């Protein structure tokens, strides 16, 4: 690993490159960083850095070296907010780092800039988004996008009635349906688990209590050092989970596993996209727009349903694991909107 992969020393703002002069020391640090970074995050960062490198080189700036000049980063923001030059756009598509020509959403630009900022911080440099012209360029770009009609494409919340509809519309009776029922109910009943948490859930973290289950969360997106939090899998969710586990027939390993075309249950866990595809398949079978739903629908649906039923916001957060009241309150308030006494003044 080059010095570009070393961490920052927060106390002094200097790099620790001098402490990692040997190849063996750099390799040890590289392994620690790799093991300490969630796989999905690592893949996203790699993809965004590959895109930025291609744009950098195709735009004629040569080979990128840290720290990236602020004026080049501002140019990156402008290019992707106002539209790339046609020849650069075509070259990025030809390089395989861009799916198709045309404008990109401001959310995509923001994510790529966040990856670039992380790249800098890990190399011991200040984040280019921490004040200065790059941060200002992103602020203006977001405002411009909003004035041009950009709205975040949030997936539709799967509230209680929607979830019941998804459960009622099976593609065909099979072991996959038993698994998918258990998966949908597990995700919702446990507090709206993220799709990665559902996909990576393990049997040995389950504890049976009076006919229901308690699940020990362990590592989550916001608790990368592990969590001792427990969430319930109760009622219909426990019944569905028990039916699936009886088919799995194991006392350890992934809860939700791959199933081949012959109906044989495998040993590998699913990935997060598979969870989203289950939601979308069930939505399509129910006559709903599958593009409107995804893995996040179960998470937002749990919090929205809690609001609809008048449940305390902080009780919902205790199960969902949201840390930001601002984030979770959007869903909770959506659920309480029609029950607001001031909503029916007429």
Automatic annotation (TrEMBL):
Pfam families membership: Phage_integrase
Tell me the superkingdom of the source.
Bacteria
Gene Ontology process terms (BP): chromosome segregation; DNA integration; DNA recombination
Q: State the UniProt keywords alphabetically.
A: Chromosome partition, DNA integration, DNA recombination, DNA-binding, Plasmid
Q: Which SUPFAM superfamilies match?
A: DNA breaking-rejoining enzymes (SSF56349), lambda integrase-like, N-terminal domain (SSF47823)
User: Keyword DNA-binding on this protein?
Assistant: yes
One Gene Ontology MF term: DNA binding
Q: Which InterPro entries does the UniProt entry name for this protein? A: DNA_brk_join_enz (IPR011010), Integrase-like_cat_sf (IPR013762), Integrase_catalytic (IPR002104), Integrase_recombinase_N (IPR010998), Tyrosine_recombinase_XerCD (IPR050090)
The Tyr recombinase domain is annotated at 153-345
Protein's UniProt name: Phage-related integrase/recombinase
Q: Which organism is it from?
A: Methylorubrum extorquens (strain ATCC 14718 / DSM 1338 / JCM 2805 / NCIMB 9133 / AM1)
């Amino acid at each position: 690993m080059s010095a570009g992969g070393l961490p920052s020393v927060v106390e002094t703002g200097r790099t620790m490159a001098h402490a990692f002069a040997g190849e063996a020391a750099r390799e040890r640090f590289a392994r620690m960083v790799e093991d300490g970074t969630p796989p999905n995050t690592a893949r996203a960062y790699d993809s965004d850095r590959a895109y930025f490198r291609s744009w950098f080189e195709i735009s004629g700036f040569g080979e990128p070296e840290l720290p990236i000049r602020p004026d080049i980063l501002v140019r990156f923001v402008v290019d992707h907010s106002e539209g790339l030059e046609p020849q650069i756009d075509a070259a990025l598509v030809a390089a395989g780092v861009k799916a198709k020509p045309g404008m990109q959403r401001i959310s995509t630009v923001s994510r790529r800039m966040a990856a670039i900022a992380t790249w800098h911080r890990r190399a011991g440099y200040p984040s280019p988004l921490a004040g200065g012209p790059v941060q200002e360029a992103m602020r203006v770009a977001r405002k411009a996008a909003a004035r041009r009609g950009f709205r975040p494409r949030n997936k539709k919340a799967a509230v209680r009635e929607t979830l019941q509809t998804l459960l009622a519309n099976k593609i065909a009776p099979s072991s996959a349906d038993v698994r998918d029922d258990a998966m949908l109910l597990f995700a919702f009943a446990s507090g709206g688990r993220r799709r990665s948490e559902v996909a990576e859930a393990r049997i040995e973290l389950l504890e049976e209590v009076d006919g229901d289950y308690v699940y020990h969360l362990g590592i989550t997106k916001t608790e990368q050092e592990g969590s001792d939090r427990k969430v319930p899998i109760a009622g219909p969710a426990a019944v569905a989970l028990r039916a699936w586990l009886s088919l799995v027939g194991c006392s350890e390993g992934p809860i939700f596993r791959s199933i081949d075309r012959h109906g044989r249950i495998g040993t590998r866990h699913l990935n997060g996209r598979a969870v989203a595809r289950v939601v979308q398949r069930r939505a399509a079978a129910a006559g709903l727009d599958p593009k409107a739903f995804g893995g996040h629908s179960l998470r937002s649906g749990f919090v929205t349903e809690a609001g609809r039923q008048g449940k305390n916001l902080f009780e919902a957060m205790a199960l969902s694991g949201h840390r930001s009241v601002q984030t979770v309150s959007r869903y909770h308030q959506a659920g309480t909107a029609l029950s607001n006494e001031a909503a029916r003044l007429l």
